[in-house]
């Protein structure tokens, strides 16, 4: 029994160390993933002030995937934040939420020289950003 208990304790310690190492690597520098926006109307270089893809089924599908690839590591799967970053399900709907979303995703967030969120302008296309916003509205909570 003592040998079995030692084996179990050794396994538990190894498991905790292993999981801790995985978790430590999960929050390092992350390269944004490209978003394929095939099937969406091209928006050009002038930034829209209101979401042109609101409730567009193609945008919802693209936005879901784009969010999971580029945003979920901080904002949580399904946009349910685990506390690292804001829970985006509570962004206001409509133009008010569009303005908040677009400002933050384009410019990022830096306070006291610390990057809390990187800017995605120049990395993600306008089409990709608006598709993410469309998907976020589909999981909105009051």
UniProtKB/TrEMBL annotation:
<dbReference type="InterPro" id="IPR030991">
    <property type="entry name" value="c550_proteobact"/>
</dbReference>
<keyword id="KW-0813">Transport</keyword>
<dbReference type="Pfam" id="PF13442">
    <property type="entry name" value="Cytochrome_CBB3"/>
</dbReference>
<feature type="signal peptide">
    <location>
        <begin position="1"/>
        <end position="26"/>
    </location>
</feature>
<keyword id="KW-0408">Iron</keyword>
<feature type="domain" description="Cytochrome c">
    <location>
        <begin position="58"/>
        <end position="140"/>
    </location>
</feature>
<dbReference type="GO" id="GO:0046872">
    <property type="term" value="F:metal ion binding"/>
</dbReference>
<protein>
    <submittedName>
        <fullName>Cytochrome c-550 PedF</fullName>
    </submittedName>
</protein>
<keyword id="KW-0349">Heme</keyword>
<dbReference type="GO" id="GO:0009055">
    <property type="term" value="F:electron transfer activity"/>
</dbReference>
<dbReference type="InterPro" id="IPR009056">
    <property type="entry name" value="Cyt_c-like_dom"/>
</dbReference>
<keyword id="KW-0479">Metal-binding</keyword>
<dbReference type="InterPro" id="IPR036909">
    <property type="entry name" value="Cyt_c-like_dom_sf"/>
</dbReference>
<keyword id="KW-0249">Electron transport</keyword>
<dbReference type="InterPro" id="IPR051811">
    <property type="entry name" value="Cytochrome_c550/c551-like"/>
</dbReference>
<dbReference type="GO" id="GO:0020037">
    <property type="term" value="F:heme binding"/>
</dbReference>
<keyword id="KW-0732">Signal</keyword>
């Amino acid at each position: 029994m003592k040998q079995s208990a030692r084996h179990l304790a050794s396994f538990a310690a190894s498991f905790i160390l292993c999981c801790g190492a995985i978790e430590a690597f999960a929050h390092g520098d992350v390269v944004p993933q490209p978003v394929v926006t095939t099937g969406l109307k091209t928006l050009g270089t002038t930034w829209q002030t209101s979401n042109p893809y609101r409730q567009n089924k193609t945008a919802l599908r693209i936005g879901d995937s784009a969010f999971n690839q580029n945003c979920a590591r901080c904002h949580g799967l399904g946009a349910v934040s685990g506390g690292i970053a804001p829970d985006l399900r509570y962004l206001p709907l409509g133009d008010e939420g569009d303005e908040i979303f677009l400002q933050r995703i384009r410019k990022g967030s830096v306070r006291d020289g610390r990057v809390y969120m990187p800017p995605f302008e120049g990395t993600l296309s306008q089409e990709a950003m608006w598709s993410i916003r469309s998907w976020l509205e589909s999981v909105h909570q009051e």
